[in-house]
Design goal:
- This protein is of the alpha+beta class.
- The protein folds into three domains: 48 residues; 61 residues, Helix Hairpins; 150 residues, Histidine kinase-like ATPase, C-terminal domain (Heat Shock Protein 90).
- Helix content is 54%, strand content 19%.
- It is elongated.
C-alpha cells in the first residue's frame, strides 16, 4: 500500500482511508469550532470594552458638568462676601458714626469668617484626597465636643432666628478623637440645618450611648431632601436645589467633608429621615473609647 505524510506522520493508504478521511474532517471541524470560539470570545471582549469606554465617557461628562457647576457656584460664593467687604470699606470711609461703623465692622467680620470657612473646607477636601490630613486624636468627652460645635454654629442659628434644642446624654461618653475635627463635623451639620430651614425653624441636637457607640443626631424641620437626592447627598458637590435658598447653597462639599472626617474616626454617618418639605435627620455613629 502507498504511504503519505499527514501532519508529519506517515500513514498507509488502503483499508484505513475512510477512517483517515473522517479523522481529517473531524480535525477541520474542531479547528473551525476553535476559530469560532475565539472570535466569539473576542467579540464579547470588544463589547465589554465598548461598554466600559461608554461608561467612562459618561463619567467624564458628568465630572465635567459637576466641575462647571462647581466653578459657577464657587464664583458666586466668593463674589458675594468680597462685594460685601468692598461695600463695607466704602461705607466706613464715608461714615463717622461710631455705632454704624461698629455694625459695618461686624458684618465685614462675618463675611471674612465665611470666606475663611470656605477656603478651609476646600483645603480639607484636598488634604483628605491626598491622604495628608492627620487627626490629632486624644481622649475627649462627647459633651465637650458638642459644646464647641454649638458655640461655633450659634451665630448662624441666631441669624436665621431658629430655636436650638439639645437632648444630650449626661452619661459619661469618652471618645478617642480629634476634638477640633469632630466639632467641625457637628458644626457643619448644624450649619446645614440652619441654612436649609426657613427662618424661625427648629433644630435639635441629640446624643446618646448605644451598645458601645455614641449616636449624635441633628434634626431640623427645614426643606428636607427629595428622594432622588438621598443616594447622592454625601457626594462631592452634591446640592439640594431650592429657589428660595439659591444665594446660600454653598459649594456642596459640606456633607462630603463630614462623611470623610467621620470615617477617619472609624464611624459612620447616615441620613435617617427626610423628605421634601419634611425636614431632615442626620445621624453620626462613633465608637466609644475602649
Amino acid at each position: 500500500s502507498q504511504r503519505v505524510c499527514i501532519g508529519c506522520e506517515f500513514v498507509a493508504l488502503g483499508q484505513d482511508l475512510p477512517m483517515l478521511l473522517v479523522q481529517i474532517e473531524a480535525d477541520i471541524l474542531r479547528s473551525k469550532a476553535d476559530v469560532f470560539f475565539d472570535l466569539h470570545q473576542q467579540h464579547r471582549q470588544i463589547l465589554a470594552q465598548r461598554d466600559e469606554l461608554a461608561a467612562y465617557a459618561n463619567a467624564l461628562r458628568t465630572a465635567d458638568r459637576h466641575k462647571n457647576d462647581f466653578l459657577a457656584v464657587l464664583g458666586h460664593e466668593l463674589r458675594n462676601p468680597v462685594m460685601a467687604l468692598g461695600a463695607g470699606l466704602h461705607l466706613l470711609k464715608r461714615r463717622e458714626d461710631p455705632k454704624q461703623a461698629l455694625e459695618i465692622r461686624a458684618q465685614m467680620d462675618r463675611q471674612v469668617q465665611h470666606l475663611a470657612r470656605l477656603v478651609e473646607d476646600l483645603l480639607d477636601i484636598s488634604r483628605i484626597d491626598q491622604g495628608k490630613l492627620a487627626l490629632r486624636k486624644e481622649k475627649v468627652a462627647l459633651q465637650s465636643v458638642l459644646g464647641f460645635a454649638v458655640e461655633a454654629s450659634q451665630p448662624q442659628i441666631d441669624a436665621n432666628q431658629h430655636s436650638l434644642k439639645t437632648e444630650i446624654t449626661s452619661e459619661p461618653a469618652w471618645l478617642d478623637a480629634d476634638p477640633t475635627r469632630l466639632a467641625q463635623v457637628v458644626s457643619n451639620l448644624l450649619n446645614n440645618a440652619a441654612k436649609y430651614t426657613p427662618e424661625g425653624g427648629e433644630i435639635t441636637l441629640g446624643a446618646r450611648v448605644v451598645d458601645g457607640f455614641v449616636e449624635v443626631d441633628v434634626t431640623d424641620n427645614g426643606i428636607g431632601i427629595p428622594d432622588d437626592m438621598r443616594s447622592k447627598i454625601f457626594e462631592l458637590f452634591a446640592q439640594v436645589r431650592s429657589p428660595s435658598k439659591r444665594a446660600h447653597e454653598g459649594l456642596g462639599i459640606g456633607l462630603a467633608l463630614v462623611k470623610q472626617l467621620v470615617e477617619l474616626h472609624g464611624g459612620s454617618i447616615a441620613l435617617k429621615d427626610s423628605g421634601l418639605n419634611m425636614g431632615s435627620r442626620f445621624q453620626v455613629r462613633l465608637p466609644l473609647l475602649a
